[in-house]
Amino acid sequence: QVQLVESGGGPVQAGGSLRLSCAASGRTFNSYAMGWFRQAPGKEREFVAAMRRSGGSTWYADSVKGRFTISRDNAKNTVYLQMNSLKPEDTAVYYCAGADIYRGSLTATTGYEYWGQGTQVTVSS
């Protein structure tokens, strides 16, 4: 079984920055791709960013382009989400997701098999 563990969330003022980390552990995980999603109270889980292991291709939601950056350390099986210029509307629980094979679009939850427990990000105005 693969476990994904997020860290780095917390409270921050608008305009500030946070860096989320997600470490994969457990059985050998090929990590074809890893991504970040978020879910605000009363809303559906939405795509934030994704990155494929090979080639380094990245995808971002329009709402975070230019502010958030996804990166990964393959040797550590860890993915990061650098979040700058945070806004109150970025407040949500952020989830790390992993896929060991292609399962579909990386901007959809169905593209991933493994999920972390989530980390809360709260941006105050």
Explain what the structure shows.
Helix content is 0%, strand content 51%. The strands form 2 sheets. Strands 2, 4, 5, 6, 9, 10 and 11 form a 7-stranded mixed sheet that branches. Strands 1-3-8-7 form a 4-stranded antiparallel sheet, with no helix packed on it. It is built from no helices and 11 strands. The model has no long low-confidence stretch (mean pLDDT 93). By secondary structure, the protein is an all-beta fold. The chain is globular. Strand 4 and strand 5 form a beta hairpin.
Return Rg in Å: 13 Å
Q: Main sheet?
A: 7 strands, mixed
Q: DSSP strand (E) fraction?
A: over 45%
Note poorly predicted spans.
none
Query: Share of helix among residues?
Result: under 10%
Number of strands: 11
Could you say which structural class the secondary elements and strand pairing correspond to?
mainly beta
Order of helices and strands: EEEEEEEEEEE
Spatial gap, N to C terminus: 40 Å
Total count of helical runs of at least 4 residues: 0
Assign an overall shape: globular
Outline:
This protein is mainly β and 125 residues long. Helices cover 0% and strands 51% of the residues. The strands form two sheets. Strands 2, 4, 5, 6, 9, 10 and 11 form a seven-stranded mixed sheet that branches. It has a four-stranded antiparallel sheet with strand order 1-3-8-7, with no helix packed on it.
